[in-house]
Amino acid sequence: MKFFDKFEKFMDFFESAVCSAGLLLTIVVVSINVFSDLILNKRSVVFEELASVGYIWVTYASMGYLYRKRDLMEVSFVVNSFPAKLKYFAELLRELYLIAFGIVMVYFGIKLCQGGLVKKLVSTQIPYFYIDIAIVIGFFSETLFCLKDFIVNLLHFKEAMAGSFMPEGWKKEEEA
């Protein structure tokens, strides 16, 4: 697991850097466009496209990071409403669903990337590939770390049923 821990640290750094750059790009070009509209009564289509590219990268490239930090938007009250033993099964089912969904998204993201090599944005002429690859990176990362959690939780099945193992991110019911 040492390799996986190092890989997780690298992905935290990489995804944080990519998302920060995308957010910075979005903020800068939107700000310039707003001031340009206020002062010159003229908006730039190029800046609109660049803002969209930055926002898309922030949205998709952060999927793995958000999963690892347990910050994905989810309906956790459904899983938390189960008794402890059933809650464990619900968590495993949730992870299986996220893995399946991630695999589908990576597959179709790769399909988009293949077509995106020839298509370009209208104003900036950026190939769609550079936008669509964010889907592949984000969902691949999310799926990989979800698969790791699923395997760890499955290996601790007996301890979980006995109440001596709790998946990462859960609070003990006494503390809640």
Radius of gyration: 20 Å
How far from one another are the termini? 30 Å
DSSP strand (E) fraction? under 5%
- C-alpha geometry: elongated
- In percent, how helical is the residue content? over 70%
Give a quick set of tags describing it.
76% helix, 176 residues, single chain
Please describe what this structure looks like:
This protein has one domain. The protein is mainly alpha-helical and 176 residues long. The model is unreliable at 172-176 (pLDDT under 50). The protein is built from seven helices and no strands.
Summarize the SSE layout with pairings.
Layout lengths: L1 H39 L4 H17 L1 H6 L7 H5 L3 H33 L12 H27 L1 H6 L14
Helix pairs in contact: 1-2, 2-6, 5-6
Quick recap:
This protein is 76% helix and 0% strand. It has 176 residues and is mainly alpha-helical.
